[in-house]
Amino acid sequence: MYKKLVAEQIYPHIQQYVTLDEVESLIEKPKYVDKGDIAFPSFTLAKHLKKAPNVIAKTLAEKLNHPLFEKIVADGPYVNFFLHKQEVSKTVLTTVLKEGKNYGKVPLSQGENITIDLSSPNIAKPFSMGHLRSTVIGNAIANISEKCGYTPIRINHLGDWGTQFGKLIVAYKKWGNEQAVKENPITELLKLYVQFHSEAEKDTSLEDEGRLWFKKLEDYDEEATHLWEWFRNESLKEFNKIYELLQIKFDSYNGEAFYNDKMEETIHLLQEKNLLESSDGAEVVSLEEYSLPPCLIKKSDGATLYATRDLTAALYRQQHYGFQKAVYVVGHEQSLHFQQIFNVLKKLGFHWANEMVHVPFGFILKDGKKMSTRKGKIVLLEEVINDAIELAAKSIEAKNPSLPEKEEVAKIVGVGAIIFHDLKNERMNNIEFSLEEMLKFEGSTGPYVQYTHARACSILRKGSSFKEAAALTGLQDEHSWNVVKLLIEFPSVIEKSFINYEPSQVAKYVIDLAREFNKYYSHVKVLTEDEQIASRLALVQAVTIVLEEGLRLLGIQAPKEM
Ligand code: ARG
């Protein structure tokens, strides 16, 4: 925010040598707080002016002055700018209050579409921890992109196709029970799938039967299609319970199966551009020039692959949404796959392939080991979320038993705790999963931020009686200044977190703001009737606005009372 202002002050004095953007890009934050709030190094100018940087800094500092700066001084080769606390805090608080939840918007786009491929679980299998990560990281990136001016399109690329459905049909026809599947679709279907594999070890003909039924499915056989649709619907109903708890909505559930009748065209296109080569009977696109293994397009038996579907999906999405950027939030174990897809599209000559990004992330660990959803060790995510809600309900019962709408708040706190615990970590890090840890009301947790927000709201309720008493004059004490400086940073935090596809930057920011606000509150008496009451209340209100908005970007709600 003030970087621009500084650049605009300096620019007129040196415009024959550098552009305004260059000036802005040179501006830094001094290493030590006593050196001021913003610094301009004059090294670059030295070679243009053929003068020593110290001399340049001194001459510049003497020429500059602006009401928002208390002093502007040269310090060696640097010009250091000290913000005028009172004036700046007055401007910032007025801006935040005026803009409300629009504060922090960054104009990176004029509403262009950005597709976010997120969540994308596999039908008839449990919703895994990896899918949870993809869901919450993807949703946060979508929210943050919207704050930066984009129109996010959330796409759930369901894993609803593949040979496993042939096996599942065989298993269901042999050992399945309709009622049981209806009652517990995921558990039952998984059981059938596991049973299929253990029986197939003894009886190899089962594999053939599985292939046969998958072939039937591909040929639109009525019975096969009917069973597949049923498995898909029942699974989706289960997944939707999780999405409902997380309050996440998708713009499209077009999964792998959606592209069945669209892949011929993709293969045709590859042929037309002479990109298909046969290799052991299979059709591949060589990616030698990118030092990558070839991308497998069609197997020797004619079956298409995961990659063929993703290529087709990309073409469809470009046609349908004309996306400006396409983001894929998928675990890092699929990095090679996405590199291959993006490069095949480049070889096809699509410039938009340069705007496609794989956003990978690490594992969720339990006691240092990867949390698995296979076989006996299934962790049903819905149960995990419900446990978190229950724990949150217990804390609320202990802290504030008379709270209205306790159940609703417990849900918001429990779910918020899980989301925050994920997002506060840089996404590539592995995360240790601990319900107790994530639900603490102290420390770097979602409940801590929510609680701070609720506390600020309660100060505002108490303060409403003397709010109009004085004018907003700004603040200059050290504690409020630390809060104000963070408020100033909000837009640039959002921008950085979008550019790096790193919601953790927003999560860390809300933790910092909550901490700084709590420090402020323990040192300063907000509710005293004096000439600064309006400014202090404005500070509290600005904090509630930014905390609520920061949490919203992460996909977390902020109750007014806790
Ligand atoms: N269903 C896949 C899996 O669980 C993830 C799909 C990711 N999205 C994509 N367009 N490939 O591994």
TrEMBL record:
One of its GO terms (cellular component) is cytoplasm. One of its GO terms (molecular function) is arginine-tRNA ligase activity. It is found in: Cytoplasm. One of its GO terms (biological process) is arginyl-tRNA aminoacylation. InterPro entries: Arg-tRNA-ligase, Arg-tRNA-synth_N, Arg-tRNA-synth_N_sf, ArgRS_core, DALR_anticod-bd, Rossmann-like_a/b/a_fold, tRNAsynth_Ia_anticodon-bd. Keywords: Aminoacyl-tRNA synthetase, ATP-binding, Cytoplasm, Ligase, Nucleotide-binding, Protein biosynthesis. Residues 4-83 form the Arginyl tRNA synthetase N-terminal domain. Residues 449-562 form the DALR anticodon binding domain. It catalyses: tRNA(Arg) + L-arginine + ATP = L-arginyl-tRNA(Arg) + AMP + diphosphate. It is an enzyme of class 6 (ligase). Its EC number is 6.1.1.19. A motif ('HIGH' region) lies at residues 121-131. It comes from the Bacteria. Pfam families: Arg_tRNA_synt_N, DALR_1, tRNA-synt_1d. HAMAP family: Arg_tRNA_synth. Belongs to the class-I aminoacyl-tRNA synthetase family. Monomer. This is Arginine--tRNA ligase. It comes from Sutcliffiella cohnii. The gene is argS.
